[in-house]
Design brief:
Helix content of chain B: 55-70%
Largest interface: A-B, 62 and 59 residues
Distance between the termini of chain B: 40 Å
Strand order of the largest sheet of chain B: 2-1-3
Strand content of chain A: under 5%
Largest sheet of chain A: 2 strands, antiparallel
Shape of chain A: globular
Number of helices of chain A: 12
Strand order of the largest sheet of chain A: 1-2
Distance between the termini of chain A: 7 Å
Largest sheet of chain B: 3 strands, antiparallel
Order of helices and strands of chain B: HHHHEEHHHHHHHEHHHHHHHHHH
Radius of gyration of chain B: 25 Å
Oligomer: heterodimer
Strand content of chain B: under 5%
Helix content of chain A: 55-70%
Chain lengths: 357, 479
């Protein structure tokens, strides 16, 4: 097992190299090249000055170098062991240095800062959504499997396939339009993470002389209700169908009949035997759910105007902001690969029959 | 054992069709098992509606009258204003119906002939569409002096691939035993005719079309009579004669309301079904081809080919597809064909994993061992013997893939980096929330509902296929 984990961890390096190289060269090959839209500030400058400014930026961000050299320098920049960069941009000596994600071309700020600001928002969205998806999906799936062929099972079977097919942008637009709009019903905020007066609020809700103050926490949660609804319905619909299918498959297995014959109660069979065996199917999708959620939050963050990683990614990709795009790719690639490894480890933990030797 | 080999040896040539027969009946069984499910029937019915509206879009919604009488002369402005794309789609659809109905000729031969003619249509579409501009834009660096070598290589590679595929198809057609000589001549003449016809036609600059002239003329009384299509508006007819008609809710003339540019939403919806259909089929086709080749190699060879292939699969599955799509589209522009190719290039992973799992299972089975022992060439083993046996799960993954591709396109268009000139459901949906916070419910409801129904249709078909093939199929591919 340890061997396997080490091998997988080592295999992550070529994969990450491949991921970043793919995205980088795709960007470099594009018309306008790296940083094209971000650095063209020729607006009302005369041609000569615009060329100078462009040349200055090209030198500052190293875009004047060949594409392969740029990629090499980026790799050097993120690795903890590498060449130091001198003032004039030439390579110094090999040393241990602090890895850095570089500086954004379109916002002229360190990428690490941008990510530090946006990552918590995306994580917050996903960390609230994933437990919701799993709890609703598993409970509903078990219930449907137990009452197979009954109204609930048949009803959710069709309804969840439909729910799963609803594009989240449609749900988002309709929810904002109907529930956060003065024309119709105005309950929820249209977007953003907090209200205008959120910074003056106490953290927790409380009663004061002026009446009920809903506080910062409730304010943020209230802003998150619609985005989380949009992010979660597809996931739990999918998981519920998956849980139902794998529990049914196990319920028909021989070991369940044996357990029944021994006189084991239904609940013990279901939760101690069947559920544990059904976990495998649920674990399989963990690895694909995390990257999918990241991608899903791109749409949701755009609709609800949440300043998370998704919005940052869309902006960076449009401006071909080399450093930010590569950092996003690296982070999402790391997340994706890690969840694949975690999935494989969970397999072995959940099912003693699985071995990687 | 040796006796068995010697008896089958002389029949190698005849063995290939014989070996295919049971597998084809398996596919047929799966299809008929699928079609008894009501979900699949509903899905197929909806797709048929979409195909109908895509093919006959100009005859369903058009600002140009179908027939009109002016100064004693009867004319059809609609036919005069058909674009080359409309004509190509009509030709392709008509030939598809012919292909499907002519039962006398073997199915594979019919498909071969159809593919030949369809491939001959591509230069016409290529010549006409903005692909020319795209390649020109891509081939020059920012300052426009030199050709980027990589792109030049890519373009010439594509051309070579096209010529090779065309050559192979024509060769196969000529050698095909199940087509008679007249049919071969007809097919080749049709292909050559289409190619020459459209290549001779020069690339025309865009025409100025005045959509409102018929309404103005009718109002002035200079038209005696005119017959319109059911929806008398083109998708890009922005009702310039009625500027107050922007963002109007549905009424009797505009059945689904108007967009915020004043175009009729129903007409846009009909034309957008073309985008949805073509994106779905073509990008899934590209994904399938890549997936079959890579997955087949991985499954057949296993070992280090598998190891390398799995890294490739990991690379593509660890990046969120949407971010990859965004990067590709931002880089290569939002052309319809580019978006198709890009969605295909990012969507093959699931197919490859399916094919790999199937081929890993099949490679040790007797018939594959026998084919190998007989010394059949690799392509024959892979594509003639193994693929037909492993193709059923691919139908499932292709069906879900079409749904995914349609969703991807509408997300891209919704985010404003996808299609800009063409009517697309995602782009229409994007206009639903006005900048001042007004909610145009018809712009959200109809396009969103169309995306939803289409995705649901493909998902229903996929689910029915999966149930028809094997309820335990999900476990075959560990993804």
């Amino acid at each position: 097992m340890l061997n396997y984990i080490i091998r997988r961890l080592l295999l992550m390096f070529p994969t990450l190299l491949g991921i970043t190289a793919l995205v980088f060269f795709c960007m470099a090959l594009a018309p306008g090249g790296i940083g094209g839209p971000a650095l063209d500030q020729s607006g009302d400058m005369d041609t000569e000055r615009a060329t100078q400014v462009r040349a200055y930026y090209e030198k500052r961000y190293g875009i004047d170098k060949p594409v392969i050299v740029q990629y090499g320098r980026w790799l050097n920049q993120i690795s903890p062991i590498g060449f130091t960069i001198k003032e004039d941009g030439s390579l110094g000596r090999l040393a241990i240095k602090a890895p850095s994600l570089g500086e954004s071309m379109s916002r002229h700020r360190p990428v690490a800062d941008l990510i530090r600001e946006t990552l918590p928002i995306t994580l917050l969205l996903n960390l609230i959504t994933i437990p919701i998806i799993y709890s609703i999906g598993i409970i509903s799936g078990i219930y449907a499997a137990r009452h197979r062929g009954k109204l609930y099972d048949v009803g959710t079977g069709t309804a969840f396939l439909a729910l799963w097919s609803i594009p989240s942008m449609w749900a988002g637009v309709m929810l904002i339009g109907l529930l956060a709009n003065r024309q119709y019903i105005k309950i929820f905020p249209t977007g953003g993470l907090q209200g205008i007066f959120a910074s003056e609020m106490p953290f927790l809700p409380r009663w004061t002389e002026a009446g009920f103050v809903h506080g910062y926490l409730l304010d943020v949660l209230w802003h998150l209700v619609l985005p989380i609804v949009c992010l979660s319905y597809g996931g739990f619909a999918f998981l519920s169908k998956l849980t139902r299918a794998s529990i049914l498959e196990n319920l028909n297995a021989d070991y369940v009949r044996t357990a029944r014959a021994k006189g084991v109660t239904n609940n013990v069979i279901l939760f101690r035997h069947v559920f544990r065996n059904s976990l495998l199917a649920l674990i399989t999708v963990v690895a694909s759910i995390l990257p999918a959620m990241l991608a899903g939050s791109v749409v949701i963050e755009t609709i609800f105007n949440l300043p998370g990683m998704g919005q940052l990614a869309v902006h960076a990709v449009q401006y071909r902001d080399r450093e930010v795009v590569l950092a996003m790719t690296l982070i999402s690639g790391l997340l994706g690969l890690t969840s694949q490894i975690v999935r494989d480890i969970w397999y072995a933990v959940a099912d003693p029959r699985v071995s990687y030797e | 054992m040796s006796e068995a080999i010697t008896t089958t040896m002389p029949q190698t040539d005849a063995a290939a069709p014989a070996a295919r027969r049971p597998s084809r009946s398996f596919i047929r069984m799966v299809l008929s098992n699928t079609m008894i499910r009501w979900g699949a029937r509903l899905g197929v019915a909806w797709i048929a509606v979409m195909v109908f509206s895509a093919v006959f879009a100009p005859f369903l919604a058009n600002s140009h009258p179908l027939l009109m009488k002016q100064d004693g002369v009867i004319s059809s402005p609609l036919l005069k204003h058909l674009t080359i794309n409309d004509v190509l789609i009509l030709i392709a659809a008509g030939l598809a119906i012919l292909t499907l109905t002519m039962r006398r000729i073997a199915f594979s031969a019919r498909v071969l002939a159809y593919a030949c003619v369809l491939l001959a249509l591509i230069p016409a579409a290529w010549w006409h569409e903005s692909l020319v501009h795209f390649f020109t834009r891509l081939s020059f660096s920012e300052h426009g002096e030199q050709v980027r070598p990589l792109v030049a290589w890519g373009v010439s590679g594509l051309l070579t691939a096209y010529i090779v595929v065309m050559g192979v198809l024509i060769y196969k057609l000529v050698r095909s035993p199940s087509l008679t000589l007249p049919w071969k001549i007809v097919t080749l003449a049709l292909a050559a005719g289409l190619m020459v016809l459209f290549l001779v036609k020069p690339h025309q600059p865009p025409r100025l079309v005045e959509y409102d002239r018929y309404r103005v003329m009718a109002k002035a009384g200079s038209i005696e009579w005119k017959i319109h299509t059911p929806i008398p508006f083109s998708p890009s007819d922005r009702l310039r004669d009625q500027p107050q008609m922007q963002s109007q809710p549905p009424d009797a003339t505009h059945w689904m309301g108007t967009t915020n540019l004043g175009a009729d939403l129903a007409a846009n919806m009909i034309y957008a079904s073309r985008i949805a259909l073509s994106i779905g089929f073509i990008s899934t086709g590209i994904a399938l081809i890549i997936g079959i080749i890579i997955g087949g190699m991985m499954g057949y060879y296993s070992g280090w080919v598998d190891l390398l292939g799995m890294r490739l699969v990991e690379i593509f599955s660890a990046i969120p597809t949407l971010i990859l799509l965004l990067a590709f589209v931002a880089a290569f522009g939002a052309n319809l064909y580019i978006i198709m190719v890009i969605i295909g290039l990012t969507g093959w992973v699931g197919d490859a994993v399916f094919v790999r799992a199937e081929f890993l299972r099949l490679r040790n089975q007797d018939f594959v061992q026998a084919a190998r022992a007989l010394g059949l060439p690799l392509r024959s083993i892979l594509f003639r013997h193994m693929l037909p046996n492993g193709v059923a799960p691919l139908l499932v993954s292709a069906s879900f893939g079409v749904a995914g591709a349609i969703q991807s396109e509408s997300v891209l268009s919704f985010l404003g980096i996808g299609l800009k000139d063409e009517a697309s459901w995602g782009r229409l949906l994007n206009d639903a929330l006005g900048s001042s916070g007004t909610f145009y419910w018809w712009l959200a409801f109809y396009p969103g509902f169309a995306i939803f129904i289409t995705v649901l249709a493909y998902n229903l078909i996929g689910e029915a296929l999966r149930d028809a093939i094997d309820p335990h199929l999900q476990k075959a591919a560990h993804l």
